[in-house]
Specification:
mainly alpha
């Protein structure tokens, strides 16, 4: 029963993340770099700090925890900086492919590489931890099935690209460009996988038995998102200067509206990793699912992002066979979340 609860919590977090781009559409009269930075302040700083506080027992502090583990704490920040590059290109993948297809390819690549690279890189730098022991046959199979589901959805995207006229493509996604979007989405997925690498490197940065199991990865999550914020802030400030959009932050007529929807977007986005931490707390009886939790989260993100893609009519005008291939891919992804537990 605890395993079901854990997976359900991860699914709820996934649904929230997949919905996080909807509030952004309500942001008014701001350039991309301005709203991206402001929602990032909420998503990568404010809410992660609040979440990490749940892992701090009475009489202790986050600052003290990080100082006591200073050398280890730098690793999650480093991987977070690389993940930040993935976050920037992730937005571009949706620009050229749409919410559904862009998230599918990016998150699919992220799911597979993030799950495998975490233990592999941790073993390279800290071989005494025997991190490779977590990559069992069931874990590898779960990753493979996830990637198969992503590939099937990619086929549906290719079928969509070939079956629609240029005018129909632009109606669904204004800047639709499958080859360009595919390249960017693969890069975004590769770099985004560094998030789980950061979590692996920081998984022991907590207060041990003094912290509830469901909160133990939240201090590491904050370190990774801090690294990502650094990357995104540098780029957004550069774009503010280049495009002369500093004035966005002083537009009094829209500031309350934009802060509200940026905060909502940030909260929804952070919910995925808050839910991941809580969900892992219920999966401790299954080492396989604990290792695969990140992959499961990304797979469910793909499922829910395609649900939003259907709602936003990004698949409108596609043939029946294209929709059937899409549904098949989604079904495989759902199965991948439970298959390892059945072995």
């Amino acid at each position: 029963m605890e395993i079901v609860i854990g997976l359900l919590i991860i699914a709820i977090g996934s649904f929230c993340q997949s919905s996080s781009y909807v509030p952004i559409k309500k942001v008014k009269d701001w350039s991309w770099e301005s709203f991206w930075l402001v929602q990032g302040i909420f998503a990568w700083l404010i809410f992660p700090v609040l979440g990490a506080q749940l892992a701090v027992p009475e009489g202790q502090s986050l600052v003290g925890l990080y100082l006591d583990n200073l050398s280890r704490s730098m690793w999650p920040v480093f991987w977070g900086i690389l993940w930040g590059v993935g976050g920037l290109t992730f937005g571009l993948s949706m620009r050229y492919l749409g919410v559904a297809l862009g998230q599918s390819i990016s998150l699919g690549t992220c799911a597979g590489l993030g799950t495998i690279l975490g233990p592999v890189l941790l073993n390279i730098f800290f071989p005494e931890l025997n991190a490779l022991e977590s990559l069992t046959f069931a874990v590898i199979l779960g990753v493979v099935v996830t990637l198969v589901g992503i590939a099937v959805i990619g086929v549906a995207g290719a079928m969509k690209s070939s079956s629609l006229s240029e005018e129909e493509k632009k109606q669904a996604v204004k800047d639709f460009n499958f080859p360009k979007g595919l390249t960017i989405a693969l890069l975004a997925g590769f770099m985004s996988g560094c998030f789980n690498v950061g979590l692996e490197f920081g998984k022991d940065i907590n207060f041990g038995e003094l912290t509830e199991p469901m909160f133990r990865t939240l201090p590491a999550t904050l370190l990774v998102t801090l690294g990502g914020f650094i990357t995104n802030a540098v780029y957004c400030f550069y774009q503010n200067s280049k495009n002369h959009t500093w004035s966005d932050y002083g537009k009094s007529g829209v500031i309350v509206n934009n802060l509200l929807f940026c905060a909502l977007a940030g909260l929804l986005w952070y919910s995925q990793f808050f839910g991941l931490s809580l969900g892992k707390g219920f999966l401790t009886s299954s080492p396989v699912l604990t290792t695969l939790a990140f992959c499961i989260l990304m797979a469910l993100n793909v499922v829910f992002s395609n649900v939003w893609g259907i709602i936003l009519k990004e698949w409108k005008g596609c043939s029946r066979s294209t929709i059937m291939v899409l549904v098949l891919g989604l079904a495989i992804l759902i199965i991948s979340s439970f298959l390892p537990q059945l072995l």
